[in-house]
Amino acid sequence: MIFAFKFALANKERASILFEILYFQANTLGLEFAESFGEEWEEKIDYYFYLFAKQEEMLEFADAISSRIPISIYFQFDSIKELEDLRDLELAPKRPMPPFPPLDAKVIQEVIGDFSLLQGYLSPLEIFAPILSPTALQNALKKCIELLREDALIVRSTRGKVLLSCKKKSKQVLFWDLSSVKTYMRVESLQAQFLASYEKPSQDLCAKEVFAEEFGTLFLECFLPYDLFLSILGAACLKQEIGYVFLTQLDNFQEPLNAKNSPKAQNSSGQGSANNLENSSGQNTTNAGNSPEDLRDLSPQVFYEQKGQVPPKEKIVVAQNGVILHTKSFRGNVFELIAAHEKTLSFVNNKRLQNDKNLIVCFSKNHPTFFWLGKEEKYQSVLGLELDCNAKNVIEKIKKIPHGEKLIKNFFAEFPEMQKKISALPDAPMPTRNLFAFFSVLSFVAGYEEEYNPHSTRVLENARKYVRDKGPRIDYKILKDEKGHLFLDYPKILRSMMSFLLAGVDEATLSYGVFDSMGECFGNFIQDLCVNFSLQNVLIFGNLLEEKIFLDKILHYAPRQVNFVLPKNGFLDVQRGKNASRDAL
């Protein structure tokens, strides 16, 4: 009998752990197998693993792989089907067998409790000195925990050199297990699921407010142990009731380090590398005054080479509906980014579109916000976004709106200090085409910033604190001028925010409303454009999408009959020069 196990792959190159588990398990049970790949489409591909087995052998195989195949952001199981034969199928050439069991979650648990197994996966392993016995390992782990509590531990991990500490706070936190994440952070079930996936990507999460002082901030980049040694160290820390450590990256990490590409230990003579961290008095030099730059040249106290596959470092954002976006940007120009999605934009449901126009939408924290209609670098803007970030000028525009002058009078009566600050501003306009940049005006007028800061992110930071799912309605209005051109009536955004400030609405609720209403306005606007121009595909990109609150809202209000093309891995936004303004493409 032939059984076809079907899997959906989001990335063929990143699915090697799946292939290894299937090959290894079939080989362990002495079963013949073959495989094939379907046609690649939109970076997705169907994968078929064919097992030649009796019914009971197939069930044993299926039971074995179900306990080994991890949750992944790149592959998932689809179905099992029985086939008559493989005559009409193009089979892939057989790959080499893995020399030892793939390092999945089940194997990791076995390795943690078996030193002889550990040596097969981590070799060499040095924790202050070469680790050659279970006793040496336990003693070294105790010393690691002491350093974590009192100062810091430097580890040459599979993702580069990192400093771990219970005391040296940073905006990156390594939690030792998922239970600890759920204890300290506000995390949705899908976020937790993918944080614990095989790839162990990082995610930005908000701490529960009661723990804000403990972490030093509410917003943190969170990790789970991403290699074998960190899993072992984490298990030891949890026994000592240490749920997390702060993590600081000490090198410009690019690729995962494993036995094939890792540099040799700098000190393998048996003296250990801990001496490199001590001065003549024997005191550790990683005191609280050291910055990451001061520590970059220090040798790691822990060094190892891990055999087998090592997932690379990546950061993702997970939407409420399960959509996963990678936060890596593209070094190039916006037309190259659009071209990378050209195939996807030209088809829907595998059928070529007749309409030769696309809608391209950019929501970026760094570049102009735009809505372009066209194709192949011939685009026209369908929405005017020419904003002024001078609060004094925006206030003058609000006065010309019906009842605006009365609102301004009441607002300044309630907040007289703000009137003085706004009056002190120069008269010259501060033009921008970036809507996110305009939020700096909202931050200033609302009093979230003492002085005007053109790079303020306080509205975003406040919105992250909000724990509910609906904010007050902020007035985003798209109007048509006398020439028939559409434009955003942006002074009304500030006007409605000022009204809510007079009503005493708190900063988290009000700031969340800014993003909630923005998603609703532009979701409806996209729907209108798609109907008017018979569009089926819309490419939306920009690093504002890495903010979960906005990603959730734009997807929630997106028209259901339109196919949203979200940026591929590595194409979230266009990288800009160090000194470029928010209006530079």
Question: Quick recap of the structure?
Answer:
By secondary structure, the chain is α+β, with helices and mostly antiparallel strands.
CATH domain topology of the largest domain: DHBP synthase
Residues in helices, as a percent range: 25-40%
Tell me about the biggest sheet? 9 strands, mixed
What is the arithmetic mean of pLDDT?
Answer: 89
Q: What's the tally of helices? A: 20
How many β-strands, per DSSP? 26
Euclidean distance between termini CA atoms: 58 Å
Number of domains: 3
Tell me the radius of gyration. Answer: 28 Å
Q: Would you tell me the structural class of the helices and strands?
A: alpha+beta
Task: Describe, in plain words, how this protein is organized in 3D.
This protein is α+β, with helices and mostly antiparallel strands and 585 residues long. It has three domains: 2-102, Ribosomal protein S10 (Alpha-Beta Plaits, 2-Layer Sandwich), CATH 3.30.70; 108-279 and 292-306, Alpha-Beta Complex (DHBP synthase), CATH 3.90.870; 394-535, Nucleotidyltransferase, domain 5, CATH 3.30.420.40. The protein contains 20 helices and 26 strands. Residues 257-289 have low confidence and may be disordered. Residues 258-293 are annotated as: Disordered.
